[in-house]
Design brief:
CATH superfamily: P-loop containing nucleotide triphosphate hydrolases
CATH topology: Rossmann fold
Largest sheet: 8 strands, mixed
Strand order of the largest sheet: 3-4-2-5-1-6-7-8
Helix content: 25-40%
Order of helices and strands: EHEHHEEHHEHEHEHEHHH
CATH architecture: 3-Layer(aba) Sandwich
Bound molecules: adenosine-5'-triphosphate, magnesium ion
Mean pLDDT: 94
Shape: globular
Number of strands: 8
Number of helices: 11
Length: about 250
């Protein structure tokens, strides 16, 4: 089943936020695992309040643990149902990183794709070798941008490289949107990719991370949660019309 890479050119644009919420929302459509592929600066487990994970992806890559042992199961409310999000954290020492074998990583991703309906890879920013390895093992890449020129410029490189690697670009995700309507209209044209989602700026995001829970579960009725669920529906193939909306009243807690 599809392996989805969440990528970006610039750092800090919201890949981990999108990955965790997208994966949480996809549990409504099928068994889903989210994998921290930000090997240098992993923090998915921190946002999801998985304290001191004993085993991580690197133990699996070294052959010291099975995938099952390094998978954490988080029960959460998604819509009206209780689902389970599977999470594989990544904690690597420098020596482990030196041992990193691309082929072994590919095998692990392959095994995950045979086990789960959706595999979401939270890829590190930019085009380092490790970012390329993660992206290159995906079937489809989504590129997260913020409404800033520099973010879109670097995203353009990522889109080009993804295509060169033979990875389909599923679309662009405009995050931290505050009503820049003309920007939203342009971004898919500049990146020559579909607009897969527009996620508004919301204080609920940092509040939800303080609570260690994806916002779609923490504040399911908030507007930003609706944006994220719409993105997940698009990724799951249920066409949702993504249109730029006007000024976002995020200051009112939307
Ligand atoms: N839609 C949003 N509204 C408000 N804050 C947001 C939104 N999306 C992300 N943030 C905040 O932006 C910061 C960076 O988000 P996140 O860690 O998801 O980015 P990232 O792309 O994974 O960063 P890195 O490149 O360092 O891995 C976090 O503090 C997060 O709470
Ligand atoms: Mg991140």
């Amino acid at each position: 089943m599809p392996v989805i890479a969440v990528c970006s050119g610039k750092g800090g644009v919201g890949k981990t936020t999108v990955s965790a919420n997208l994966a949480a929302a996809l549990t409504a459509f099928g068994e889903t695992v989210v994998v921290d592929c930000d090997f240098m600066l992993p923090n998915l487990h921190i946002l999801l309040a998985i304290e001191n994970p004993g085993l991580s992806l690197f133990d699996v890559l070294r052959g010291d643990a099975s995938l099952k042992d390094a998978t954490y199961r988080l029960r959460m409310a998604v819509g009206r149902t209780l689902t389970t999000l599977h999470v594989i954290p990544s904690l690597a020492s420098l020596s482990m990183l030196k041992e990193f074998e691309e082929r072994r990583f590919g095998e692990v991703v392959e095994e995950l794709s045979e086990t789960y309906d959706y595999v979401v890879l939270d890829v590190s920013a930019g085009l380092s070798r490790l970012s390329l390895v993660s992206m290159g093992n995906a079937d489809r890449a989504y590129v997260v941008v913020n409404p800033e020129r520099s973010s879109v410029n670097s995203a353009k490189r990522v889109v080009t490289v993804a295509r060169e690697l033979g990875v389909e670009v599923g679309g662009v995700i405009l995050n931290r949107y505050r009503g820049e309507r003309s920007f939203a209209e342009l971004v898919s044209e500049i990146l020559d990719s579909e607009l897969a989602g527009i996620i508004r700026e919301s204080r609920d995001i940092s509040r939800s991370w303080d609570a260690g829970v994806p916002v779609i579960s923490y504040r399911p009725r908030s507007a930003v949660s609706r944006d994220l669920v719409n993105l997940a529906m698009n990724v799951a193939g249920q066409k949702v019309n993504i249109r730029p909306f006007g000024r976002v009243r995020y200051l009112l807690g939307w």
